[in-house]
Specification:
Largest sheet: 5 strands, mixed, barrel
Distance between the termini: 58 Å
Shape: globular
Oligomer: single chain
CATH class: Mainly Beta
Strand order of the largest sheet: 1-3-6-8-7
CATH architecture: Beta Barrel
CATH topology: OB fold (Dihydrolipoamide Acetyltransferase, E2P)
Number of strands: 8
Number of helices: 1
Structural class: mainly beta
CATH superfamily: Nucleic acid-binding proteins
Number of domains: 1
Helix content: under 10%
Strand content: over 45%
Order of helices and strands: EEEEEEHEE
């Protein structure tokens, strides 16, 4: 038995990129930052915050929702699977990319219920 499951809560680092591929299928890419808070050891040594960046890929309806509602700075819950792919760069060197292929997302940033007054 094996399990490939990822659950993340983080902040969107840049505006999501959405493209439409074969037959109008939407695919979105989101850069998500998760941060482990720093702490102080008993001897007084400061351990700084540690931020990890995740490449999240969403397909079809989820990608369309991302296009409409997800923006830089938003907090997201993402549930999905780790997916690794490779490609050859312009110098012929094989590169690897680790992505999270989302199965479920939830927008955690509250939206204003009324328009702001100017």
């Amino acid at each position: 038995m094996s399990l490939n499951k990822v659950m993340l809560i983080g902040n969107v680092g840049v505006e999501p990129e959405v493209k439409y591929v074969d037959r109008g299928v939407a695919v979105a890419q989101v850069r998500l930052a998760t941060t482990e808070r720093g702490y102080t050891l008993e001897n007084g040594t400061q351990v700084p915050d540690r931020t990890e960046w995740h490449n999240v890929v969403l397909w079809r309806k989820q990608a369309e929702l991302v296009e409409k509602y997800v923006h830089k700075g938003d907090k997201l819950y993402v549930e999905g699977k780790i997916h690794t792919r490779s490609y050859d760069d312009k110098n012929g060197v094989k590169r690897y990319v680790v992505e999270i292929w989302a199965e479920a997302i939830e927008l955690l940033t509250p939206k204003a219920t009324t328009e702001p007054t100017v």
